[in-house]
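Training component of the fellowship. As part of building independent skills, the fellow (R.M.) carried out the full modelling exercise for a liganded target. The chosen ligand was 2-acetamido-2-deoxy-beta-D-glucopyranose. The inputs are recorded below so that the supervisory panel can assess the work.
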Amino acid sequence: MLKKSVSSAIFLCFLYQIGTGMFTASYPTNLTPSSGTNFIFGVVVVNDGSWYNNTTGEFTAPLSGNYLFTGALCPQRSTSFYFGITLNGVEQTRAEYFESDGHVCHSYTSVLQLNANDKFAIKSVHPYNELFEDHSRWNIFSGVKR
Ligand SMILES: *[C@@H]1O[C@H](CO)[C@@H](O)[C@H](O)[C@H]1NC(C)=O
Ligand SMILES: *[C@@H]1O[C@H](CO)[C@@H](O)[C@H](O)[C@H]1NC(C)=O
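Fellow's submitted model of the complex:
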């Protein structure tokens, strides 16, 4: 029992130092990312341990485990909009959002098993992708470890 609480305390100190990896970032720095480049969310709302890098748009897993990534993307009206979810640069899934009637935000979710130091990002995979952002439509990227 004592042994268990000592090891839990050591683990908690360790987590305190490296952070949990939980992050939320908003406001893309470039609303028209060219094909093959990451969406970069510049404004960091939460970044426990600073594992989300707001100049590359990549999240690096601090620990191996199960992670949930979610958020919203708001494409420009009537613009083809394709993106991929990448793990270490390799697409895990791809989607297209297209709305002809307005600027509609769509949520996305991805659950992945990551090893420590794996990198997760959202990548533009279309040359004319364009996001829309205003006071009521926010593009968001978040992640948390289970
Ligand atoms: C990245 O986040 C830091 C810390 O929150 C902030 O000072 C900086 O301006 C951000 N960079 C960009 C490109 O938005
Ligand atoms: C983000 O990544 C870039 C490129 O790898 C690196 O130069 C920079 O130091 C990183 N920023 C932080 C806050 O770790």
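The panel noted the following from the submitted structure. The mean pLDDT is 92. The beta strands are 23-28, 41-47, 52-53, 58-60, 65-73, 82-87, 90-96, 106-114, 119-124, 140-145.
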